[in-house]
Structures are given as structure tokens and as C-alpha cells.
Design goal:
Elements lengths: L1 H7 L5 H29 L8 H10 L1 H20 L7 H16 L8 H27 L7 H14 L2 H29 L10
Helix pairs in contact: 2-3, 2-4, 3-4, 3-5, 3-8, 4-5, 5-6, 6-8, 7-8
């Protein structure tokens, strides 16, 4: 019994870590896809397709999470969304970067108000500025196809006449819910993975 425990605690070799990292990348893409499908089936007003990127980053580090997230968007662009949508891969890179930053700052305690303030601030208000820039710069902006953000867009545009603010606030309205939920799920799962399999330092 003692011998078994000793084997379980043995450090993973560099080759083993490389294999884990390589396997994680397509796994991240698959998890993002599953999350997106579940959200669409439930008709939820969120996206649900970046939690795999967050989980991959918490386990494998920034480059692994970014690669897996980008791969997801490339696959979706070539199969379902249309080729121009490959550019949204950079949004997943931004998700990986924010997740990596939160991890480096030790903001993974879901019981801490400091963690939630950082998560909501970065994912709920900073990240939407990035996605808004892509939306307007590449696709010309306009209302999202989900009902709630589209309603926010219409209301803000009607009341202020500000096209840029309307685009930004519709993104805030969905990301401020979607990303904190996704981050919480990723942190909970990552916390249950044996530390010897965690590549991120």
C-alpha cells in the first residue's frame, strides 16, 4: 500500500508533461464545443464556449490554454461559423491571458471577494472592450443574435444614439455572466486534479 502511494506521488517526467500538454490542446477545443452546445440547447443568454480555455490554462499554462482556445475557433470557423470568424480565436487567447493573470495573482479562491472583483472587472468590463473592437473592426458591429444582448444594444442605441457604447454594453451584458460562471467551473475542476498533473506554475 505504501509502495502504491509512493508511485502515485512520483513526479511526471518532462516527456510526460509534454504529452499532457499536447493532449490538452484538442481536449480544450472539445470542452469549449460541448459547453457551447449545452448552452444553446438550454437557450441560455450566455456563450459557454470558453470554460475549456480557462481550464486548460489553469492546468497547462497560458500557451496551452491559448492554443486550445484558438483551435476551437479555427475548427468552428471551418465547419459552422464561416471562415471570417476564425478571428474570434484571438478572443480565446485573451481569455487565456486573463485566466493566466488571475492564476499568477493567486486569484483562484472562489470564497474571496477580491477574486470575484477581479474576475468580474477583467472578464465583465475589460474583456468586452476587446471583443467589441473585433466585432466593429472586422464585422462592422451591430446587435448580437442572442435576445438579451440584442435588446440591450437596441435600448442603449435608442437612448444614447452611441453606436460604440451600444456594442460595448451588449457585450458586457453577456460576458459579465458568462465568464465568471465559466471561470468558477474551471477553477473547481482544476482544484480536483492531482497537482502532479498540473503543468502551470
Amino acid at each position: 500500500m505504501a509502495e502504491t502511494k509512493e508511485i502515485e506521488m512520483k513526479e511526471i517526467s518532462p516527456t510526460g508533461k509534454a504529452i499532457i500538454a499536447v493532449v490538452l490542446i484538442p481536449t480544450i477545443a472539445a470542452l469549449n464545443y460541448v459547453g457551447g452546445v449545452i448552452v444553446e440547447a438550454l437557450k441560455a443568454p450566455i456563450w459557454g464556449d470558453t470554460w475549456g480555455t480557462m481550464l486548460g490554462t489553469l492546468i497547462g499554462g497560458f500557451w496551452v490554454g491559448a492554443a486550445g482556445g484558438f483551435l476551437y475557433n479555427i475548427i468552428m470557423a471551418f465547419t459552422m461559423w464561416g471562415l471570417p470568424n476564425w478571428v474570434w480565436g484571438f478572443a480565446n487567447v485573451a481569455v487565456a491571458l486573463i485566466t493566466w493573470f488571475l492564476m499568477k495573482m493567486n486569484l483562484t479562491d472562489l470564497k474571496s471577494l477580491k477574486t470575484w472583483a477581479a474576475v468580474i472587472g477583467l472578464f465583465g468590463f475589460v474583456y468586452p472592450a476587446f471583443t467589441t473592437a473585433i466585432s466593429i473592426g472586422v464585422f462592422g458591429g451591430g446587435p448580437l443574435w442572442k435576445p438579451i444582448p440584442a435588446a440591450v444594444y437596441a435600448a442603449v442605441l435608442k437612448s444614447t444614439g452611441n453606436f460604440y457604447l451600444a456594442n460595448y454594453l451588449q457585450n458586457v451584458s453577456t460576458e459579465i455572466i458568462d465568464k465568471p460562471i465559466s471561470y468558477a467551473i474551471a477553477v473547481i475542476i482544476a482544484s480536483r486534479i492531482p497537482k502532479r498533473f498540473i503543468l502551470a506554475k
